Amino acid sequence: MVTIKTAKEINIIRAGGHKLAVILQTLVQAVKLGVDTGYLEQLTNELIIKAGGRPSFKGYDMGGGLFFPTSLCASINNEVVHGAALPARVLRSGDIIDLDIGMEWQGLYTDTCLTVGVGKISHEAKQLIRVTKEALELGIRQVKPGNTLNDIGTAIENYADKFDYGVVRDLVGHGVGYQAHEEPNVFNYAIPKNSRENITLKEGMVLAIEPMINLGTWEVITAKNGYTVLTVDNSLSAHFEHTVVVTKTGYEILTK
Fold this sequence. Notes:
Elements (H helix, E strand, L loop, with lengths): L6 H24 L6 H14 L3 E2 L5 E3 L2 E2 L4 E5 L2 E3 L14 E10 L2 E10 L5 H18 L8 H13 L4 E2 L5 E3 L6 E5 L19 E4 L2 E3 L5 E3 L6 E3 L5 E3 L2 E5 L4 E3 L3
Antiparallel strand pairs: 1-6, 2-3, 4-6, 5-14, 6-7, 8-12, 9-10, 9-11, 11-16, 12-15, 13-14, 16-17
């Protein structure tokens, strides 16, 4: 069931989202040559605890008896999502890394991420990061009462198509607030207008919009660990995400 959050709940989500955005920017500053993702995980936990929150990814049930091992998703290069921030994963020049964090604060959840480069990265990597960020912004601009999830997905897909990039279809955004992941699915690509999943947006809905875009094909596979998602052709992947609330006249980004 798609839920509508109250004004009081949105105020809490907004405050938690601001705290999460500050944490994410601190992590970005920590991304440097030679840094171990285990250090980024340690920093994530310290910052979330200091903010009075609880990490929502560590121990998350991935199905099949698997539980995600870290608070930070640190997905590098061809890892689309769910790269664990474990020790011994050292960042090298030319890498791109997706920093994805979720937090429960005062009983309500927010979710955000971005992709950054390490050292000197290729022109292709820079463009992929830029386009994915811009695709998120275009999707968010479609958020207003009366528009649909298809409006969001179509805006994202149409923009990525201009660069012949692959928009991942096996993974989507989601509702957020009462839980880390709620209904509805928030698609990053066009869906049939008459689909049951093409819901109409209403004031008070809180959505995590998160395009995942590959330099090559949209197709993905799951790594041997059972949870990290990889590009099937080993191409680079970028990922950006904001938690957004539908307002009376449009939208508000809650993770800024």
